[in-house]
Structures are given as C-alpha cells and as structure tokens.
Amino acid sequence: MTIYTKTGDKGTTSLFDNKRVSKDDIRVESYGTVDELGTFMGLAKNYVDDEEMYDLIQNIQNKLFTVATNLATEDSTKVKHHIVEEDIDYLEKIIDLYMGRLNNPTGFIVPGSGKKSAHLHVARTVCRRAERRIITLSKVADIDPLVIKYVNRLSDALYSMARYSEEKEVPVRY
C-alpha cells in the first residue's frame, strides 16, 4: 500500500467529506495544528514518569482525533463523533486534580524547570495556537462550540499538568 496519492501535488488536499481545499486553508491550518498538538503531547507523555498522567495524556490524544475530525469536515452531517460536555468535565477534573495538588498556586513562573514540564508547556502553547486557528475558522464557518470550549479547557489542563511537573518553581522576576 502506498501512502502517496499525488492529488496534493498542486497545493490542495481533501477534507474528510472529500471537498478539495488549498493546503493553506484556515480549516486545514486548524486541524493541522490540532495534529501538531497531539504529536507534542505524544512526546511529552514519554517524559512523564507518572502512570496516571501518562494515561490522561493518552486519553486526551485520542479525543483530539474527534476534535480534528470535526474541524476537517465541512459538512457537519458527515461527522460521526462529537465533543460532549462530559469531555469538558473530564478536562476540568484534571485541572482541579493537579492544581489542587499544588494548593492552587498563583503568579507566573518561568516554564520548564525540567524535561517533563518543558514538553508539557510546549504542548500547552501549541494548544493555544490551535485555539486561535479554530477561532479564526469560526469566523467563516460553523464550528461546534463544544470543540472551541474543549480546546480552551485543554490548554488549562496542560498548564496544570505542566505546573505540577515542574522540578522547581522559578518565579518570574519583573
């Protein structure tokens, strides 16, 4: 089986519902950034020595395929899987868990005092970029509001895991 189709050689690609668009289309940019996020999360989980956090990250990676499918499909009637409120509740429980373990800290820190936290912070910033791309897409296309809410909450979950994983907290000095 070959993975190349040659159909993208002229700068277009197919969405999940087979509509052809330019490879720099904001829709492609948004689900491509979600793909990048999932990949960075895959990298981050391999530096995590906590099995619970590893499993949480892997579960989120799987859910990102639902996010990407929603973004990569213009015809919403062809989307088989959707983000639901329970998915957002799951992220909120992660946030509460890790921030609670830190006694709900305040103030800014310099991110990445160790490899675990550094990789999680990279994933967090890619998540924020994905959210910006999705917001841009939402200005020209109908996007499920729960997809936007999920990605927004995900960046907070990644922050809480990253902050918990810091080897030492280096406060920002202004």
UniProtKB/TrEMBL annotation:
Write out the GO MF terms: ATP binding; corrinoid adenosyltransferase activity
Q: Which InterPro entries match?
A: CblAdoTrfase-like (IPR016030), CblAdoTrfase-like_sf (IPR036451), PduO-typ (IPR029499)
Q: Which reaction does it catalyse?
A: 2 cob(II)alamin + reduced [electron-transfer flavoprotein] + 2 ATP = 2 adenosylcob(III)alamin + 2 triphosphate + oxidized [electron-transfer flavoprotein] + 3 H(+); 2 cob(II)yrinate a,c diamide + reduced [electron-transfer flavoprotein] + 2 ATP = 2 adenosylcob(III)yrinate a,c-diamide + 2 triphosphate + oxidized [electron-transfer flavoprotein] + 3 H(+)
Instruction: Write the Enzyme Commission number(s) for this entry.
Output: 2.5.1.17
Biological process terms from the Gene Ontology for this record are: cobalamin biosynthetic process
Superkingdom of origin: Bacteria
Write out the entry's keywords from A to Z.
ATP-binding, Cobalamin biosynthesis, Nucleotide-binding, Transferase
Give the Cobalamin adenosyltransferase-like domain ranges: 3-164
Q: Where is the signal peptide?
A: none
Record flagged with keyword Transferase = yes
Q: What family does the database annotate?
A: Belongs to the Cob(I)alamin adenosyltransferase family.
NCBIfam families documented for this protein: PduO_Nterm
Q: What is this protein called?
A: Corrinoid adenosyltransferase
Q: Which organism is it from?
A: Tissierella praeacuta DSM 18095
